[in-house]
Amino acid sequence: MSHPRLVLDILIATWAGGGTVPPAAEAALRLRCRGHRVRLMAEAVDESEALAAGVEFRPWRRATSRRDRLPSSDPLRDWEAASDLEGFARLRDRIMCGPALAYAEDVLEEVARRPVDIIVSSEMLLGVMAASERARVPLALLCPNISLFPLPGMPPMGMGLLPARSEAERLQQAEVATGFGRAMDEGLSALNAARRKIGLDPLAGVAAQVARAGRILLATSPAFDFPLDRLPRDVRYVWPLLAEPSWAESRAGGAAEFPAEPLVLVSFSTTFQDQLGAVRAVVAALAGLPVHGLVTLGPALADEKLELAPNVTVVESASHGDVMRRASVVVTHGGHGTVLRALKHGLPLLCLPMGRDQHDNAARVVARGAGLCLDRRAAPAEIRTSLQCLLEEDSFRSAASQIADGIASGRGTSDLVEEIEALAGEMRTCAKLETTY
């Protein structure tokens, strides 16, 4: 980057969604280590992540600010949705657009308390984007997964689609993308109401708010993602952000803690997605295999009791990085963080998607030959057969190792810190030019 080094005041804004906070906290830590002054604005339950990163924490005041990770306090409750479309509507109305004014007013209040040079926001918080525009502060969007918004040549997110192979499929996916835009714009009235309240003109569509960001930073790897026709001017791949949450415990015993047979790590979402039935089916499947299973419950299932097999250990939490150095296969819901961490270690995956971005992550795993995908309601016998296949056929581990090599090489990625610094530098240059002329 050609821009001179600046010490920046940076506000990072996020919410307590599955897989959203650890990447934001890792970004905060990296920016702080670079010498910048960083604040993490998030929900009260995530104050420990800011403390672990060594940055200032600012809780949401008007916007939702959960104090625990219990299902009863979850504003989405997307496990109750009758369809993926209804699940998306809940996300739009309860996080993205519906509470836009609350997020916007909280950010404007924080910026008035102490000005910032740049805002780094979750790509889902439209109210933060509007506040950045109103405060005339440069904005970068941090996407801790594959892109939520349509990109050229990329299949639309949400349905686990593969890249189009024919003109008919291209037309079909274009219709899906158009439908996604229409569904998103059902939140436009709430967004525009927030914009008017804080002194901004209304927009013709929600996408116009996203387009005003100076950078869209995709914290994933091109080695995992499907190829693009072209990378839009302000979009960057910035390497996966795979720091583990502060509550994840290290397995002190390491490899010696488990028997010699292959180790299968079972990890479903850290947030509640009604995944207990799937976890029970996986445990039952493991009972008939010559493996040792380690099930990490996470906060979502910490209080649940499982009927265990002799070859299965259940813990509330464990450092996945530590365990994956010993593991042979990972069974997961298909969340981006777990999938990318497994692939970084060259491990094949069995995915049982629950919703959200998980079908899309699983589609990429399967398309690249690095694993298999089953329905979340799969029976133990079907899960057992899939696990045997992953353990016995070398092609899966070989494909996962190729992705690991691609992730390690950093091909096609930029440095997150440098991109944020560059955006701030560009905006300061533009401001000086405006002042001069």
Written description of the protein model:
With 437 residues, the chain is an alpha/beta fold. Helices cover 41% and strands 13% of the residues. The chain has two domains: 9-239 and 411-436, Glycogen Phosphorylase B (Rossmann fold, 3-Layer(aba) Sandwich); 254-409, Rossmann fold (3-Layer(aba) Sandwich). It has helices at residues 21-33, 47-53, 84-96, 100-113, 126-135, 167-185, 188-197, 206-210, 276-286, 298-301, 320-324, 336-344, 358-367, 380-392, 394-409, 416-436, and strands at 9-13, 37-42, 56-59, 118-122, 139-143, 215-218, 235-237, 263-267, 292-296, 312-315, 329-332, 349-351, 371-373. Strand 9, helix 10 and strand 10 form a beta-alpha-beta unit. Helix 1 (21-33) runs parallel beside helix 2, helix 4 crosses helix 5 (126-135) and helix 4 runs parallel beside helix 7.
Notable characteristics:
single chain; 437 residues; alpha/beta; Rossmann fold; 2 domains; 13 strands; 41% helix; 13% strand; globular
Describe the structure in brief.
This protein is an alpha/beta fold. It has helices at 21-33, 47-53, 84-96, 100-113, 126-135, 167-185, 188-197, 206-210, 276-286, 298-301, 320-324, 336-344, 358-367, 380-392, 394-409, 416-436; strands at residues 9-13, 37-42, 56-59, 118-122, 139-143, 215-218, 235-237, 263-267, 292-296, 312-315, 329-332, 349-351, 371-373.
